[in-house]
Amino acid sequence: MLPVLLGLVFVPPSVVAQVKDQASASAPSGIGGKGRIVPSGGLLSLGATQSGQVVERVLVKEGDRVKKGDVILVFVDKPMREAERDAAADRLKQVDELHVARTRVLELERQAAKLGAEAAAKELQAVSGLDDRTVSAREQRQRAQAAASSDLALRLADARIAEAKVAADQERRLARANLETARAHLSRSQLFAPRDATVIEVSAVGTGVSAAGTGATGQQVTLADTSAMYVTADFFEGDLARIAPGAKVRIANPVLPGGLTGTVEQVGRIVNAGTRLGKASIRLDQPSPADRYIGMQVDVVVSPGPVAK
Question: What is the CATH code of the structural domain delimited by 30-76+201-302?
Answer without folding.
Answer: 2.40.30.170
